[in-house]
From TrEMBL:
Pfam families in the cross-refs: Nucleotid_trans
GO terms, molecular function: glycosyltransferase activity
GO biological process, one term: cell wall biogenesis
Species in which this protein is naturally found: Lactuca sativa
Protein name listed in UniProt: Nucleotide-diphospho-sugar transferase domain-containing protein
InterPro entries tied to this protein: Nucl-diP-sugar_transferase (IPR005069), RAY1-like (IPR044575)
Bilayer-spanning residue ranges: 12-30
Residue ranges occupied by any Nucleotide-diphospho-sugar transferase domain in the UniProt entry: 423-643
Cellular-component GO terms for this entry: Golgi apparatus
Keywords noted in UniProt: Membrane, Transmembrane, Transmembrane helix
């Protein structure tokens, strides 16, 4: 059981996300600035230019389609598609039921699934990754909304209106929470029908909805929409919020207001959106996988971390409203309707009546403070045993990465690469608290090695140093522990780039065979010479021979003042290679373990054939049929990182804190 201490974590994270954190604090106190300050922005508010109908893509994270959740999502999505032929829907999910739902609309339909955004290992999508994907949309307008929220036609009329604004904009719209909605959608998804299948008028629907309560406290129920224009949404870097956890929408609005790039407003009064709130039945509780224990603790934690302990609400935003069939903007705080101008008094009276209806009666906001206060302390239940049992593949095999904080970007690039290769049976062993916290925030299956030395997060913890020796000795102990729990294991340093999944090959050698990368740099000759075993990439089968041999290695390493790498060779192949067998094997007689050195054309080390010096490493390695390429035989963390980034064998966007996605890749780099 790894116990997680909020306070320690907070401190660490403040450092990790320092930039974002400062922005939050600043924007908090900058929100009194509520109007677009640049005068040009104000002028542009009612300067309508474009007259074409906008193309719209609605992005939504969906839960698996089953039970009442499935039905609610289906109804909501049908209501969106019925609004206009110009609306497309992108579903964020990796679940097979979502693919079949999208498939049911037929080939070339307006519904598609996007499984390549970042998810935690428990399947929760990351909000920052969803936003990035939505920003890459080629439609005029991107919308992010909850998958159970139903829309009425005034949604599309509002978008058609704001599409004509001559300034980039961003709006939110709150939804209503109704306990019952006695109408059903017709086959086309265009009309709502009442009892005797008679069409129900829009006015009647709206009247019915006006009894529903605004939902202000559930951040994910707020619709966000923006035009895909020139200006960024905001100046900040979105923290890796889990979708539906914490106040990500508030965060974005705060940032957008303080960045002052776009015209930010609240369109709740011109958009009829609602969700039906009734009790979930038992069958669907399983499907609500975002709500499982580990995740909800994490989510609560995100909320507290990335938001100031104060309250904020949307009542300060400029509001879009409709009066006498015309749209207007107004600020209820300043009692101003835009554009500023003289109205004929009759018109003015009417407008004031409309405007007065916007003024909040009673409490319209939601105190984030109250919600944050009620959070329980976090205790993450990710023990090694639990992680292994949920992550191992059907061969009971685990891929293990061991990393310290100074290798965090390398770790992420490695993880992103494994995601691309659909390899999901990996776990991460954190060598220090910083990398543990970082990995938790990035949604990785991570455990903390309790025996690891505490201070290893140094830039100079590289090959040959004291630090390096201590770190590498941790690895074999963890490996031994995992083998003893009955799991086969592929140990891969995070500086090993994977071209394709080597497990199908490595698992064919069977028990009592230990497979390791050779560090031999000469092109020809034996590859099993003394000290040529690289302990940064090896496969160990969980059996008596291997466990007994690894026990000897760990013991040897504990007595040696060198790193553990020589202990592997000296123990398994004998000092001076006395246990060598042919040119690429050893046999350890006491444990009857066979050691095979992997073919260097398939598993090249960093020196072999100077592969890293080629101007197209990737294509050469692909032609050779490489499974992996080790970024070793280079000194210094920085140089190593540069070499990997510059050769294009890099999969992580450091500044955005998310995997490089297919939609972000430059077309010049080839991936396969
Ligand atoms: C309104 O838009 C038109 C066309 O883009 C532009 O020529 C005009 O200058 C704009 N007016 C203002 C006040 O910005
Ligand atoms: C909707 O309202 C009901 C009753 O007021 C409340 O119990 C429920 O939590 C609300 N739903 C959401 C998603 O906030
Ligand atoms: C729902 O679950 C509860 C507890 O898990 C159980 O007691 C109850 O019988 C279930 N109800 C139905 C209708 O399955
Ligand atoms: C919402 O903001 C307004 C204006 O800042 C404030 O008066 C009100 O108390 C806030 N509501 C809540 C619930 O925090
Ligand atoms: C990973 O899975 C996706 C979806 O199932 C598939 O399109 C893709 O080709 C797979 N990639 C690899 C490398 O197997
Ligand atoms: C931890 O680091 C400090 C400062 O670099 C060093 O003096 C100390 O010996 C280290 N502790 C261990 C257990 O190695
Ligand atoms: C599981 O092991 C078998 C051989 O024992 C191998 O053919 C198969 O590819 C392995 N599966 C994976 C996912 O590695
Ligand atoms: C492995 O060792 C255990 C106990 O040490 C023993 O019970 C078991 O039979 C051994 N298995 C094999 C395949 O030798
Ligand atoms: C390592 O140990 C050997 C003896 O086992 C000793 O000769 C050598 O000086 C030690 N090296 C260091 C750096 O302590
Ligand atoms: C290994 O070789 C060195 C020199 O070649 C020799 O001095 C040493 O005794 C040898 N050790 C063993 C255990 O064979
Ligand atoms: C050692 O392993 C080989 C197969 O790897 C097996 O044929 C042999 O019987 C084993 N010898 C002993 C003593 O267990
Ligand atoms: C590397 O080679 C591949 C395939 O030949 C090619 O598509 C790609 O553009 C090359 N990349 C660079 C950086 O030259």
């Amino acid at each position: 059981m790894v116990n997680f201490h909020l306070q320690t974590l907070k401190l660490g994270l403040i450092l990790v996300w320092l930039c974002g954190f400062i922005l939050i604090s600043i924007s908090f106190y900058a929100t009194t600035q509520i109007l677009p300050s640049s005068s040009s922005m104000k002028e542009h508010i009612n300067n309508l230019t474009s007259s074409t109908r906008p193309t719209v893509t609605i992005f939504t994270a969906v839960r698996p389609f089953s039970g009442s959740i499935g039905r609610k999502q289906t109804l909501a999505i049908r209501s969106w598609l019925g609004l206009s032929q110009d609306i497309r829907v992108v579903l964020f999910s990796k679940d097979p039921s979502v693919f079949s739902f999208a498939g049911s609309f037929g080939y070339g339909s307006r519904v598609s699934v996007e499984p390549t955004i970042d998810f935690t290992f428990l399947g929760t999508p990351f909000f920052h990754s969803m936003v990035a994907r939505a920003q890459a949309s080629n439609s005029d307008i991107s919308v992010l909304m909850d998958s159970e929220t139903i829309l009425l036609p005034d949604f599309f009329s509002t978008l058609s209106y704001v599409h004509k604004l001559d300034h980039d904009w961003l709006f939110i719209a709150s939804s209503r929470n109704v306990s019952d909605f006695p109408f059903h959608l017709d086959v086309d998804g265009k009309h709502w029908l009442g009892d005797n299948n008679k069409m129900v008028k829009m006015e009647k629907l709206q009247e019915f909805l006006s009894n529903g309560k605004w939902e202000h406290c559930d951040d994910k129920k707020t619709i966000i929409a923006w035009n895909n224009g020139e200006l960024p949404l905001h100046n900040g870097v979105l923290p890796p919020f889990l979708y539906g956890k914490g106040f990500h929408t508030l965060w974005m609005i705060n940032e957008a207001l303080s960045s002052n790039f776009r015209f930010v407003f609240d369109a709740s009064w011109t958009i009829s959106s609602f969700f039906i709130n009734n009790i979930y039945n038992n069958a669907t509780i399983e499907a609500r996988n975002w709500e499982n224990v580990g995740n909800s603790h994490l989510g609560a934690f995100y909320g507290s971390l990335f938001f100031h302990e104060d309250h904020y609400n949307y009542s300060n935003l400029i509001k879009l409203f409709k009066c006498d069939k015309h749209y207007h903007f107004g600020s209820t705080i300043d009692d101003i309707v835009y554009p500023l101008g003289v109205f004929r008094s009759s018109k003015h009276t009417k407008l004031s009546t409309c405007f007065d209806k916007l003024k909040p009666k009673g409490n319209t906001g939601c105190s984030t403070k109250n919600q944050l206060m009620s959070l329980e302390p976090i205790s993450l239940p990710f023990s090694l045993e639990l992680l292994l049992s949920t992550r191992a593949d059907q061969n009971k095999t685990i891929v293990l990465a061991v990393a310290g904080y100074s290798y965090k970007d390398m770790l992420m690039s490695w993880v992103c690469r494994l995601h691309l290769l659909n390899v999901s049976n990996f776990v991460v062993c954190a060598l220090d608290d910083e990398i543990y916290d970082f990995s938790i925030l990035q949604g990785l299956p991570v455990f903390r090695d309790k025996l690891a030395p505490n201070n290893i997060s140094y830039d100079d913890c590289h090959f040959g140093t004291n630090c390096f020796q201590r770190v590498t000795k941790v690895k074999s102990r963890v490996v031994l522990e995992i083998l003893k729990l009955g799991y086969n294991l592929l140990m891969s340093d995070v500086d090993v780039y994977w071209f394709k999944n080597p497990l199908p090959l490595l698992t064919t050698f069977g028990p009592a065979v230990f497979l390791a990368q050779s560090d031999e740099y000469k092109i020809t000759g034996p590859i099993n010479l003394p000290r040529r075993l690289n302990s940064g990439f090896y496969y160990a089968h969980s059996d008596n021979s291997t466990i007994a041999a690894l026990e000897k290695v760990v013991k040897h390493a504990s007595l040696s003042n060198l790193s553990e790498q020589p202990s592997f060779y000296d123990t398994l192949c004998g000092v001076n290679g006395s246990n060598r067998l042919g040119d690429d094997m050893c046999h350890e007689p006491e444990t009857n373990l066979t050691i095979r050195f992997l073919d260097r054309n398939l598993f090249p080390n960093g020196a072999y054939q100077d592969l890293w010096d080629l101007n197209n490493v990737s294509s050469t390695c692909m032609k050779k049929g490489c499974f992996v390429l080790h970024n070793n035989w280079i000194s210094g963390r920085q140089k190593k990182l540069e070499r990997q980034v510059s050769s294009g064998l890099w999969e992580y966007d450091i500044s955005m804190r998310m995997c490089l996605q297919t939609w972000q890749r430059s077309k010049s780099i080839s991936y396969f």
